[in-house]
Amino acid sequence: MKACVIHAAGQMAVQHWPEQSLANDEVRLDFAWGGICGSDLHYYQHGRVANSIVREPMILGHEFSGIVCEVGADVTGLTVGQPVVVNPSRPCHACDQCAAGLTHLCRSMRYLGSAAHQPHTHGGFCERPVVLATQCRPLPKHFDLALASLCEPFAVALHAVALAQIAPGASVLVTGAGTIGSLVAVAAKAAGAGRLIVTDIAEPALARIAGVTGAETFRVGNAELTGAAEAAIGEVDVTLECAGSPFALDMAIRLTRPRGRIVQVGFLPPAAPLSLAGLLTREITLVGAYRFLEEFDLAVQQITDGTVDLSPFITGRFTMDEAHAAFAAAADRSTNVKVLLSF
């Protein structure tokens, strides 16, 4: 079968890959659609995501949907022909965090398409991925499998918004209007945000999120733009920092009210310079958000029942043979939010 494989920074190939054998508790899928995530881009551009370094060939991808084409001997509840979306989490269910119900913080997590462990955990960007049956969430017949591939990033957004503890009518600032920031803005509005504000360095991204959510938007990126934005925004109850930028977090600290709350969603650079004094002097709570828990099932529900319409964020579709062009498009935030791949 064909697979999209990362070998090192800048070295990605769509190549032949042997079919994986099927265990009794697993299913084989016909790949439908997969979304290129920021972590996929990091592996492609830098050969690593934080401390997860590509040391051997690895199939990319953890946001994907498919159709069941084979089931293991012990699998129940899934049949050949069933459309599904895949939860990429494979926690150990044995560590202290799993025992506490915090499986997303599993100390031995095997996340699809991750170089965190050796051997690496292969992802789903192949013609016939094999996953645990328990990772599959059935979808309605004839549901748009491209749209279903957004369940994983929307689950990340829902988890971040849950940690934000948004009170009805609260003022909410979202920094960064990329994929996660845009989905966080959608989730924050649904959670009851009153005044919703989004900042970004790219005007097209801001125009898109304003059209979807009605948010106030402000362009930042230099001292003049940022100063004008801060003057117009004033003070907010909650900030969700989705840009992964130390400058955005500094701005969040300046704009969040005393005893307000900041949720750090985007990954910051390893040696980011930060001005944290405002956290102390205004007793601001800073919380990290990482992946998701039960929010994956909530994301599936809200996307399939039409509670949210995320289709405006699908801005590019490519075949897997066009993977290099797709990754270049995904890196172009002036044009794209979520770029999808199919075979």
From TrEMBL:
User: Gene3D superfamilies from the xrefs?
Assistant: Medium-chain alcohol dehydrogenases, catalytic domain (3.90.180.10), NAD(P)-binding Rossmann-like Domain (3.40.50.720)
Where do the Enoyl reductase (ER) domain residues begin and end?
A: 10-341
Q: Does the keyword Cytoplasm apply?
A: no
Q: Which cofactor does it need?
A: Zn(2+)
Entry keyword set: Metal-binding, Oxidoreductase, Zinc
Q: What molecular functions are annotated in GO for this chain? A: oxidoreductase activity, acting on the CH-OH group of donors, NAD or NADP as acceptor; zinc ion binding
Q: Superkingdom, according to UniProt? A: Bacteria
- Family of the protein in this entry: Belongs to the zinc-containing alcohol dehydrogenase family.
What is the protein's name according to its record?
A: L-idonate 5-dehydrogenase
**Which source organism does the UniProt entry give?**
Hoeflea olei
